[in-house]
Amino acid sequence: MLICEICQLSFTSLNSLKSHKRDQHSSAAHIILENGESATIFRESGSSKFKCFCQKYFETIRGFQRHYNRNKCAAPESLNFSQEDPLLSSTPSTSSNINDETAESSVADSSVACSESRKLLTDLSFRKFESSFKAMDDQMKWKLSSGRTVEDVLYDFGMELEREHAVHSFILDTSDPEMKKLFTGQEWDEITRETELETTTLPESILNLIQEMNKTNIKEVKRVLLKYAEIRYSDYPTSDEFHIDKICYAIESL
């Protein structure tokens, strides 16, 4: 087992470890500008992230390069390529020069990315996300009155992210404040109206079953299942008995 000495993640092969260190801990990312010139972008010393010309930040080289190649963000015309600019330069500055194969104390902050609860997306994950989007039937998408489609908005947002998110399964979480920012006020009102669900009150018999199943001992759970056996294995006089059977079946299947 190989360990990254910077963030303590483990790897099964040397190639995967090198790829990880190059992507998450290298100081420099290389891109090709619109004019055909190659450029090197360095992590900012404060945030340890790559800052694009559009002012967006990225914690990995692949995330930054994926964003730039997709959007081709324009470099400032006044930028002097001969200067050792922390954003764009042909040679790394002393403060941001980090060897790919050694762990320097100056990259300690970048290890924060490794401790995030959400996993970094792989190239394969992005390809699957992109394939799912391209396979969609435009006629089946949720088209808002503004003319925009929800799936298109989620796709554009998801392609900019470096870590796993519900949008990569095309799930629109209306409780997520980041989602609200993607839409206009009118669009968001339309979305929330469509997604509002009426609160359903469970029948007392179902509530009693759920309460009885709240046990910490498997033997006690089995006793409850046995108690409801007669109801389960007889004809369902009402829909309540049907739901009781399915709930018990779900518990048995755990």
Describe the fold and architecture:
The chain is mainly α and 254 residues long. It has 3 domains: 2-71, no CATH class; 124-195, no CATH class; 204-253, no CATH class. Helix content is 39%, strand content 7%. The chain is built from 10 helices and 6 strands; from the N terminus they run ββαββββααααααααα. A hairpin with a 6-residue loop joins strand 1 (2-3) and strand 2. Helix 3 runs antiparallel to helix 4 and helix 7 packs parallel to helix 10 (239-252). Residues 81-115 have low confidence and may be disordered. This is C2H2-type domain-containing protein. It comes from Rhizopus azygosporus.
Low-pLDDT stretches = 81-115
Structural class comes to: mainly alpha
User: What number of domains?
Assistant: 3
Q: Give the SSE string.
A: EEHEEEEHHHHHHHHH
Strand % is: 5-15%
**End-to-end Cα distance:** 33 Å
- Spatially, the strands of the biggest sheet line up as 1-2
Considering DSSP H and I runs of 4 or more, what fraction of the residues is helical? Answer: 25-40%
Tell me, rounded to a whole number, the average pLDDT.
82
The count of β-strands is 6
Please state the overall shape, judged from the principal axes of the Cα atoms: extended
Tally the helices: 10
The value of Rg in angstroms is 26 Å
GO molecular function: zinc ion binding
Keywords: Metal-binding, Zinc, Zinc-finger
Organism: Rhizopus azygosporus
Region (Disordered): 83-104
